[in-house]
Design brief:
By secondary structure, this protein is mostly beta strands. Helix content is 8%, strand content 46%.
């Protein structure tokens, strides 16, 4: 047998060392495609430190998009999903939810929920077994919920590892925003294109409706939890455009006692103003509401007040409203038309303007990561 001399041993050793070194570098970059769709152990990326803005786009045009506001650069970058994945997002981007490092993008008219890394915005999967979805809410790393207008009001339970629908829960027509509190899922039944005035209460252990709360306000849309752990629901009121003359019911703020799941307080907002967005301040002591078609102003109200304010904190018309719970800043979305780009406005919680930025078509809300 031929012997290996010292020089040959050195070449073999160096080759092996280079091989190990290259393996170590590859291990630092884990391909997303090899992971579970909702794996949350990803590296940081260009979208790690900021907020995501949903732009509906024009109905039927398939030009909905996501914009990214960078905290560090104070800039807004548009159409990031298309830029990263080289394809359009879909028709009517309704909402976005961030759970850990995963972004769930609800695309209403395309009947799907796109899933992307919230750090890199690389696509990770699609939930397609939904009809006119509205909002997504994750319970934990294993399970999530989708509200949808299709099938006359359904909440679908999602296995977040396989992205499969595991159960359908019948709620009220026009299932809209959801909130989880004390192990219960509360669903606002808005009525969709008609009218409803109920909240479905679902046990997240059994995924069964345990109670239906009837409100004295129409078209419940949005929820927050205050510093006293009470639940507030915003009822936009119902406008019947087809009646002659046109009729409308008042908008209201209604407080729910989560111990009894009964209405504890009902406050009239307006007979003619129909806001659709409700937010809570960083300290959870003040309510902010506004947003929607033809709604002028963002209003601020203490949770201890028993009457709604008559003067707007910010006297401007907005389509959407969100608050960053880490900073307390207000993100207000202006959509003057659905053919041209809209505007993101940022304010301090006292109404002081912080900046404005050109967004996509029809901006309607924001999604924030929790630090």
């Amino acid at each position: 047998m031929k012997k290996i001399n010292l020089k040959q041993w050195m070449i073999i050793f160096l080759s092996f060392a280079l091989f190990l070194s290259s393996c170590d570098k590859d291990d630092d970059i884990e391909p997303i495609d090899d992971k579970s769709p909702t794996d949350t152990t990803e590296i940081q990326g260009p979208y790690s430190n900021g907020a995501f803005i949903t732009n509906e786009g024009a109905y039927g045009a398939g030009n909905g998009s996501i914009s990214f506001y960078s905290y560090e650069q104070n800039t807004l970058t548009n159409n990031i999903f298309n830029t990263v994945n080289n394809r359009v997002l879909g028709d009517v981007v309704q909402s976005i939810t961030i759970h850990d490092t995963i972004a769930y993008i609800v695309v209403n008219a395309s009947n799907k929920i796109e899933i992307a890394s919230a750090n890199t915005f690389t696509e990770k999967g699609v939930i397609s077994d939904v009809i006119n979805p509205r909002y997504y809410l994750a319970l934990d790393d294993e399970k999530g919920y989708v509200s949808q207008w299709g099938d006359d009001g359904i909440v679908k339970v999602i296995d977040q590892k396989t992205l499969a629908v595991t159960k359908e829960i019948t709620v009220g027509i026009g299932a809209e925003q959801m909130i989880i509190h004390n192990g219960l899922l509360y669903v606002a039944n808005s009525g969709g294109y008609a009218n409803n005035n109920t909240i479905s209460v679902i046990d997240t252990n059994t995924d069964e409706v345990i109670k239906t709360i009837t409100l004295d306000g129409d078209s419940p849309r949005d929820f927050v939890i205050d510093a006293n752990n009470d639940i507030w629901v915003l009822c936009a009121g119902y406008v019947d455009y087809y009646s002659t003359p046109m009729t409308e019911t008042p908008s209201k703020l209604i407080r729910i006692n989560p111990t009894t799941n009964e209405v504890a307080e009902s406050i009239n907002i307006s007979e003619t103003l129909h806001p659709t967005c409700l937010e809570i301040s960083k300290n959870e002591n003040n309510l902010f509401y506004g947003g929607g078609y033809g709604v002028q102003g963002i209003f601020k109200m203490s949770i201890d007040d028993d009457t709604a304010p008559t003067t707007a904190l910010i006297d401007k018309s907005f389509y959407g409203l969100s608050i960053n719970q880490e900073t307390g800043d207000i993100y207000a979305m202006e959509a003057s038309s659905f053919t041209d780009n809209g505007t993101l406005w940022r304010y301090e919680d006292n109404g002081t303007e912080l900046g404005s930025y050109e967004a996509g078509i029809g901006p309607n809300g924001a999604g924030f990561k929790k630090k």
